[in-house]
Specification:
Layout lengths: L11 H9 L4 H13 L2
Length: 39
């Protein structure tokens, strides 16, 4: 049986790096939406 990859939630450091890499409010908005919905 092939390995089934399971997603793990991002830790606070990873979230901060992702948000800090955004240049505009809309980029941050999209990231926050994805994090909130788990998409």
């Amino acid at each position: 049986m092939p390995y089934q990859h399971k997603r793990e939630p991002l830790n606070n450091d990873e979230v901060n790096k992702l948000i800090n890499a955004c240049n505009t409010f809309w980029e941050k908005f999209v990231i926050w939406t994805f994090l909130d919905t788990g998409w």
